[in-house]
Design brief:
The chain has about 350 residues and is of the alpha+beta class. It has three domains: about 120 residues, Trna Endonuclease, Chain: A, domain 1, CATH 3.40.1350; about 70 residues, Winged helix-like DNA-binding domain superfamily/Winged helix DNA-binding domain (Arc Repressor Mutant, subunit A, Orthogonal Bundle), CATH 1.10.10; about 130 residues, Beta Polymerase, domain 2 (2-Layer Sandwich). About 35% of the residues lie in helices and about 20% in strands. Strands 1, 2, 3, 4, 5, 6, 7 and 8 form an eight-stranded mixed β-sheet that branches. It has a five-stranded mixed β-sheet with strand order 12-13-15-11-14. α4 packs antiparallel against α7, α10 packs parallel to α13 and α12 packs antiparallel against α13. The chain is globular, with a radius of gyration of 22 Å. The two termini are about 40 Å apart. The relative contact order is 0.10.
Length: about 350
């Protein structure tokens, strides 16, 4: 199984890991792909070793993109010039259109998408793979912003909620690493829905963050933002937190346990934890899969934004209050009422959690 490192940030970890698995499946017998390791020099997202049956190895420099349009290919090509000459640049994306693949091919840049479009040429130790996947995007998003569903909209909402002074379009684009045009469309939608107030040349003057938070929860419930699995920890949630604190997992505690760490609430019966690679983390943490009687919900995020703004308390990483609240509002059991209690606490303690 392929793993990303704990400290990898600002990339879609699911796209990266799924793309590497797709590539692993395409390798000839005897070939293997090593663990993806974050590139601390910052020239690419990660690097991985490719091993041939005769034990010769090659190095892949990996760029992970949730989306890559043809117009963005030149920037990736420029990135190739910054990588080490011995490394082979590979772009991994959720989907790559025919024109995007053609431009990458013309620039001698390798690629893998999650539908099975793969082209990989490694001079040493010597490997060529080319396969065809989908010819059309199976999950094409509509361009106009019509709701708050989706990872990009969620990052924008979090940035607006978590800051006392509303950031402008350019600042939001930098904070969220999202195209300014998309940010503008989301802000226009929020203004139309009276969730923010804008003045002058579109400058955001204020954000009705409690209403915005509830709207976000209704349009992007927890199950739409990640893949959740239920488990049983026989020793209970508190024991699990102690194991997490001593582990190398990248995680944040959300739900009732995180709310209780901020404000007095009833004891949480369910531990909600955002964590990379749920299946493997569950094994390392000694959890048992359970449909009935579960006391742990592990959620594999579709976007790295869930880890933004995490706060460490007594060695345990807790999600930002806004993330905890939106998770609770669509969680099972007492989750929605706990979410409202947390929002009440947030109203009274804005100086504590808003930047």
């Amino acid at each position: 199984m392929l793993h990303t490192t704990r400290n990898m940030a600002s990339i879609d970890n699911i796209v990266l890991r799924s793309g590497l698995r797709e590539l692993q499946r395409r390798l000839p017998p005897g070939w293997s792909l090593g663990e993806a390791v974050v590139d601390r020099a910052g020239t690419v997202d990660a690097r991985a070793r490719l091993r041939a049956p005769d034990r010769r190895t090659g190095s892949l420099a990996i760029e992970a993109k949730t989306r890559l349009d043809p117009k963005d290919v030149p920037a990736v090509v420029e990135q190739a010039r910054l990588t080490r000459s011995t490394d082979v640049l590979v772009v991994i994306a959720r989907y790559l259109s025919e024109s995007t693949r053609a431009r990458l091919k013309d620039a001698d840049v390798n690629y893998v998408d999650l539908t099975g479009n793969v082209r990989l040429i490694v001079p040493t130790p010597g490997l060529f793979i080319e396969t065809q996947g989908a010819s059309e995007d199976p999950d094409r998003e509509e361009r106009p912003a019509r709701s708050l569903r989706g990872a990009k909209a969620g990052r924008i909402v979090r940035a607006l909620i978590d800051r006392k002074t509303p950031p402008g379009v350019r600042e939001l684009a930098l904070l969220t690493k999202i195209d300014a045009g998309y940010v503008s469309r989301v802000l226009a939608f929020l203004e139309t829905e009276a969730l923010i107030k804008r003045v002058g040349r579109g400058r955001t003057e204020s954000v009705d963050w409690p209403v915005l938070l509830r709207r976000w929860a209704s349009e992007a419930p927890l199950e739409s933002r990640g893949q959740a699995s239920m488990y049983l920890d026989p020793r209970g949630p508190s024991a699990l937190l102690q194991r997490l604190a001593k582990s190398n997992e990248q995680y944040v505690v959300s739900g009732g346990l995180a709310a209780r760490a901020l404000a007095p609430t009833a004891p949480a019966r369910l531990a909600t934890i955002w964590i990379r690679d749920v299946a493997e983390a569950a094994t390392r943490l000694g959890l048992r899969a359970a449909d009935a009687g579960a006391n742990v919900m592990l959620v594999e995020p579709g976007d790295e934004g869930v880890f933004e703004g995490a706060v460490e308390r007594k060695g345990i990483d807790y999600a930002a209050p806004s993330q905890v609240a939106v998770d609770l509002l669509t969680s099972p059991g007492r989750g929605p009422s706990e979410g409202e209690e947390l929002i009440d606490w947030m109203r009274s303690h804005e100086d504590v959690w808003r930047k």
